[in-house]
Prior knowledge:
The structure holds 2 protein chains of 2 kinds.
Chain A: H1 5-9, H2 16-51, H3 53-64, E1 65-70, E2 77-78, E3 84-96, H4 104-114, H5 119-131, E4 138-141, H6 146-153, E5 162-171, H7 179-182, E6 185-186, H8 190-195, E7 208-209, H9 212-216, H10 218-222, E8 226-232, E9 238-245, E10 253-254, H11 259-269, E11 273-280, E12 286-292, H12 297-300, H13 306-314, H14 323-326, H15 336-345, E13 354-356, E14 359-362, E15 365-368, E16 376-378, H16 380-385, H17 389-399, H18 401-410, H19 432-439, H20 445-452, H21 462-474, H22 498-513, E17 531-537, E18 557-564, E19 571-578, H23 587-598, H24 600-614, H25 618-633, H26 642-653, H27 691-696
Parallel strand pairs in A: 2-10
Antiparallel strand pairs in A: 1-8, 2-3, 3-4, 3-5, 6-7, 8-9, 11-12, 11-19, 13-16, 14-15, 17-18, 18-19
Chain B: H1 8-11, H2 15-35, H3 44-63, H4 66-94, E1 101-102, E2 107-108, H5 110-128, H6 137-155, H7 160-176, H8 181-201, H9 205-215, H10 225-238, H11 249-252, H12 264-297, H13 301-325, H14 343-364
Antiparallel strand pairs in B: 1-2
Amino acid sequence: MKINFRRLIQPRHVSAGTLRNSFDRRSLVVGGIQGGIGVLLASRMAYLAIGQNEKYKLEAESNRVNLSLIPPRRGWILDRFGTPLASNRADFRVDVIPERMVDSAHTLATLGQLLSLTPIAMQDLEDKIDKSRGFAPVEVASGLDFERFAAVSVRLPDLPGVVTQRGFSRYYPTGSSVGHLVGYVGPASAEEYEKDRDPVLITPGYKVGKDGLEKYFEKDLRGKPGARRVEVTASGRIVRDLDTREDVPGKTIKLTIDAGLQDYASRRIGLESGSVVVIDCTNGDILAMASMPSYDPNSFSDGIGRLEWKMLSDDDHVPLRNKVLRGLYPPGSTVKPMVALSFLEAGLDPNESVVCNGGLRVGNRVFHCWNHHGHGQVNMLKGIYQSCDVYFYNFAQRMGMDPIAAMARRLGLGQEFPLPVSGQSYGTVPDPAWKERKYGKPWAVFDTVNATIGQGYFLVNPLQQAMQVSRIASGKKLMPRLIHGAHDAPPESLGVKQEHLDLIHSAMNEVVNGRGTAGKARIPIPGVLMAGKTGTAQVVGLNFGNGKGGQWKHRDHGHFICFAPFDNPRYAIAVAIEHGGGSGAAYPIARDVMTYLWDKQKAMEVLEGFEKDWGGTAQQRLEARYRKYATEYGVGAPAVSPEQENLAVQQAESTAEAQQPIVRDAQSPAPEPVAADNPAPPPSPAPAASPSAAAGTVQTPGTPQ
Amino acid sequence: MSRTIVPDTIARQPWGMLVPLMGLVSLGAAVLYSAAGGSLQPYALSHVLRFIVFLGMAIVISRFSRDFFRTVAYPLYGAIVILLVLVEAIGAVGGGSQRWLNLGFMTLQPSELMKPAIVLVLARFYETLPHAMTASWRGLVPAGLLIVLPVAFVAIQPDLGTALAICFGGAVTMFLAGLPMWWFVGAGLSGLIAGPIAFFTLLHDYQRNRVLTFMDPESDPLGTGYHITQSKIAIGSGGIFGKGFGNGSQSHLQYLPEPHTDFVFATMAEEWGMVGGYFVLFVFAVVLTWGTRVARNAPDRFSSLLAAGMTATIFFYVAINLMMVMGLAPVVGIPLPFMSHGGTSMMTNMICIGTLMAINRWSSRPKSIS
C-alpha cells in the first residue's frame, strides 16, 4: 500500500484567511466543549442534590450527630429496713476503647501520668487491655477527683479512644461483709456480650452483675439506658447537646437481710473461716448470711488485678467460696436433736435409758462415745445435752436409718432451697436406698452409727443447718426467704407433736443453760434463754491428730445451732467454723450474734474488744493485707489467664463430690469441748477465734457456770 | 451614540458580564461570611475588598493599548520565569516546597501569574510567526519550549494543578492558532500512552493517592477519599433549596476540608442548594460566553488568541474545581474563581477579565483608529 507521506509532511497552504477560518471553527469547538462540561456539571449537580439527596442528608446527619448511651443507674439493693447494701455513687471516670486508640502506648503513658496511676494499676490496665475485645471499653480509673478528671477531659482531642464520663459507680457501704451475699459487678465479658446483645453492655462505664444477687437480678437491676445526642465536629469536639433522654434506673431490690446484723456477723467471724446464718423463726426470713473471709466487692468492680488474685489464691480460707451455700460439712452432733425427734416420732419413750460406759459393743466391734469415761445412765434429754453418742448408737440400731433420714429431709437437710442465688451445694442425707444407688453397696450397721452422730456420708451446708434449727424451733415448715415482702403463704406446720418439740427445746436449753456442753454460750440478756446444740465434725481420722491442734487443715469443724428465746422461738442461728478445732470455735460467735439481736450496744463492745486483737475490722484487715502485698510484690505478681480464673472459681464452688470418700468403718466421734480430759485447742493459725473456747474446755459436765 | 447621563467611559464597560460577576462575588462573600461562622472576618470582607481593588486593576489593564500588550509580552514572561527560578532557589535554601515569594506587603505566587502570561506570550509568538510557518516545526517547537520551561519549574515545586492549568492555557492557544489538527490528535494519543507511565514514575505519592482515591473515594473514607466524600455529602445534603444561610453543618462542624478555599462550592451548595449551584454555573456561563464572543469579535490574530486563551484559563479553573468538588475529578488544589478566598487566584482571574475587557475595547473602537 502506498502512503502519501508528502501529504502528511508537506504543510498545507496557510494564509491569514485560512487561519482566521480555522480560529472561528476551532473556537466554536472549544466553546462547545466548555458548554458540554457545563451541562455535565449541571446534571451532576442535579443528580447529587436531587437524586441522592436522601442518602447524603442521612450521611450529613450521622456526621453531625453523635449518639451516646448513658449507662442506666443500677437498682439499689436494700436491707429490710431500707439501708443500702449496694448503692450508686456519683463518679468521675475514664475509660479507653482499645480499637480506637491510635498510639496506645503513648496514650496509656499520658493517662498514667495525668491520673497518677501506680505501676500496679498500670500493669492491671495493660492486662485488661490485652484481654479485652477491641470494641469493649476498658476502665482506666474511676472515683476520680475533679482535678484529675478535668486534666484528661481537656486533652481528649489528643487522646483518641479515651472516654471521660460523669456517671455513677456501684458502691457497697459495708464492703467485704456483703461480698458473697450481694456479689459484685464488672465490665461485661465478651461471652456475656455474646449471650446478651444489649448495646448497653459495651457502653463505657456500664457494669453487669458478676456474682451473687447482682448476677441473679441482673435484668431487674439494669434499668434502661438514657441517650445523649450531641452535635460534634469532625475532630470529635462536642459543640452542643441536642437532646437527652434520661436513663431509667433499675429496680430496687429489698432483702430480708438486716444490714447491721450481717455486718456484725461477718466481723464476728474474725480470723476464722466460716459462716453465720440467722433466720427469723416466724417466717423464714434470712436476717444474715455471712461467709468469711470474703472479698471487697468495691475493689472488684474494675476487674480483679494480679495482686488481688495473688491474695485470693494464697489464702487457704478460700475467700471466693460462699460457705453458706457452697460449704459442705459433716454436721456432727448438731443432728442429735433431729435424730431424737425422729425417735420420738417412731414411738421411743424419752425416759427409756441406756448406760454409757464410754462405748458400745455391737457384735465384735466397740463404738466409742466421745467421752471415753462414759456418761452413766442416759435418757433422751441427757443424750442431747451431754451429746452422748452411746445413747444414739443404741437406739438408732433399734429404730433403723429410714425414719432418721426422713426426719432429716423434713427439717431441710439435703434440700436445695428456692433462693435467688447463683448456686447451692446441697450435700447428702444418707440412707440405705441412697447408698445402694450411689455405691451399689448395702447399708451397714456402722453407716447408721456414723449417721446418727452426723458423720460418715452426712454432708450439710450451713443454710440447711439454719433451716433445720429454725424448723425445730418453730415447728413450722419454714422456707428461707431473701426477698423482703414476698407474700408467701404462711408456713404450714411440720406435723410434729408440740410435746415432742417441747422436749427437744428443753434438752437444747439444757445444753446452754443447764448441764450441757455449751455453758459458755449463755447470752447476757436477762429473761432471754438461748437453746442450742454443739457439733464437732472430724475432718481426718484420729491417727492424724486429735483434731484440736496440729495443721489447720486437719482440725475439726466446729458447729453450733441455736435459737432464742427457747420458750418462744424468735431467731435461729447456725454457725459453722471450718477447722475451728471443735464447736468451741462456733458457739461464742453464735452467742454474740444472738446478743446483737437484743442488745446491739453490748454485742458491739464485745466485738470491738476482739477486733483490737485481730487488727481491725474485716475490711481494715483486707486493706492492710493488700498494702502489704503491694509493698511485697509490687508489679511482680504473675499474670492470671482467664482459664486460671475459671479454675479458681470452680474450685471454690465445687465442694460436694470431693469430700465424700467411701466410709468403710465406724468413725470415732470427735470430742466435745466440755470433755474434762480434753486439752485446750492451741490458737488457730490466725489468733484464737474466741477466747472462751479455751476456757470452755475445762468445764465439767453438768456443772454450768 | 445616544446621549445619556451616564458618562461614556462607564457606559462602555461590558455590564452584561460585570453585573452577574458582581453577583457571583457577592454570593462568594456571603458563603465566606457563613464559613467564618457568621463573621465578616477573616474571609468575607477581604474577599470583597480584593475584588474591588482587582476590578480597579482590571479597568486599568483595559485602558492599555494593544501595542503595550505586544511590547510587554516577552519581558513579562521572562520576568515571571526568573521569579519561578527565584522561588525554587529560596525554597531549596529554606527547605521543603516553596510556592510563595514574600514581597513584604504581599505574598506573591509567581506560578499563578504565569497562567495569563503564557497565553499572552503565545499570542504574541503566533502573531509574529509568518502564517506559512504555522504548520511547520517552527510553529510548534518554540511555542512548546515557551510552555515547558515554566511548567517544569511549577511541577517540581510541586504544584500539579497550576502546571496543568499552564499547559491547558498554552495548549488551547496553540490549538486556536491553527496548528495542524493531527498534531493534537497525536499528542492526545501519546498522552494516553505516556499518562500511565508518568503516573507511576513522575508523580509524588500524595498525588498518586489523590488520583487513586478519585477512582474509588469510598475505599479510604477517612484518608484521602475523605475530602471527596465529605464534599459530595455537603452538596447532596443541600438538596434543591439548601439548608439555609448559616446552617451548613458540614462546613461549620469542619467535616468539609478547606470550606473557604478549594471546597467553597460545596460550602455554598450545602446552604443554598442546587439553586445556588445553578446560579454559579449561570454566571460562569455568562462570563465565558462573553469571553468567547470577545475572542471571536477581536480585530486581529493577537487579540483573538489572547482573548480565547484568557477565557480558557478561567474555564480551566472553573471546570477542574467544580468537577473535583462533585467527585468527577481528583483532588487538585485549584480554587474556584471569584468565590474562593485567596488573593492570588482573584488577581489572576481579574487579570484575565481585565485583558478581555481591553480586547473588548479595542474591537468596539471605530476601525479607522485601529
